[in-house]
Amino acid sequence: PEERKPEDEDLDPSCACLCCWDVLVDPVTLLCQHTFCLHCLALWFDVSERDVCPQCLEEWFIYPEIDVELRDTVNGLFYSSVQRRRSQIQRDARISRSLRRLERYFQLEMKFYLYVICYTLIGLCFYMQNLLSSIDILTTDPATKWNPNDVASWLDMMGPWAEQYKEAFKQGIDYGR
Ligand SMILES: [Zn+2]
Ligand SMILES: [Zn+2]
Questions:
Q1: Which parts pass through the membrane (predicted)?
Q2: pTM of the full predicted structure?
Q3: DSSP secondary structure string for all residues of 25-62
Q4: Max Cα separation, the chain?
């Protein structure tokens, strides 16, 4: 049976890239539901320096994954065209560079988000620890048994507004000696 060519007028719009208007190679569908070849998106990203949809300018947020189901469908319908384009793409140094750049950009972005999550968790742990130890003092020791250090750390925990009382309290301790 004869293979259909991308030049065919009956190229199904759902099998065409919105960037190059040719048959889709490694199609990715963005959150906005616009579909492009992965390499077309990489070239667009390289030129525009923005991670937005070339069609509607909506942000991608995540690395555009290849739509495997659509890729197989397009491969089945336009096998030789896809193969021809694929070998062109692989030979194109500029496309390879853009693809690598896109991948690196998202790796860096992922690392950044991981750091933010880690630091938030660590901060939350310290906060909980402080909270628990403050409950500890207040519930296990009656206030009359607090030593000056307990009072100082309690004033510490009260936050910046207690600063003046803390200073006054510390001076009181010094004079008392
Ligand atoms: Zn394309
Ligand atoms: Zn879009």
A1: 112-132
A2: 0.62
A3: SSEEE-TTS-EEEHHHHHHHHHHH---B-TTT--B--S
A4: 102
- The CA 20 to ligand 1 mean position distance, Å, reads 4
Q: How far is CA 124 from the centre of its chain?
A: 21
- The CA-based angle 125-131-137, given to 5 degrees, is 135
Smallest Cα–Cα separation from 99: which of 67, 151, 69, 64? 64
- C-alpha 37 – ligand 2 centre gap (Å): 13
Q: What's the pLDDT tens digit per position in 121-139?
A: 999 998 988 888 877 666 6
Query: What secondary structure letter does DSSP report for 66?
Result: B
Residue 17 alpha carbon to ligand 2 centre in Å:
12
> What confidence tens digit (pLDDT) does each residue in 20-32 have?
999 999 999 999 9
Tell me how far apart the alpha carbons of residues 39 and 19 are, in angstroms, rounded to a whole number: 10
From CA 92, how far away is CA 177, in angstroms rounded? 81
